[in-house]
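Bench notes, afternoon.
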Amino acid sequence: MAETKEISLEIRPEIAKGTYSNLAIITHSHSEFIIDFATMLPGLSKPDIGNRIIMTPEHAKRLLNALMDNVTKYESQFGLIQIAGQPQQQGGTFNLGDLPQFGPGGAKS
């Protein structure tokens, strides 16, 4: 059985207020995933990158799993999240693991 550890976190006020992002640009190498969080707003000629997160492939997959879990919980509570420009889905959410590019062999690029 996996051991669960409780972690005590402290967040500085300037970090706690957060940074808005409506665009994420993801790249990777053999050893890292890089996620640039950016904001694209009317009047700006190009996106402004506010934060860059660099993580190992293992942690990127843990983040993917945590996001999938949280989106499922969100949609159970508030309803399906609609993505503009995509056909409306019937029957609730889907599991990324059921898609060929995210199946048991892992994500393909």
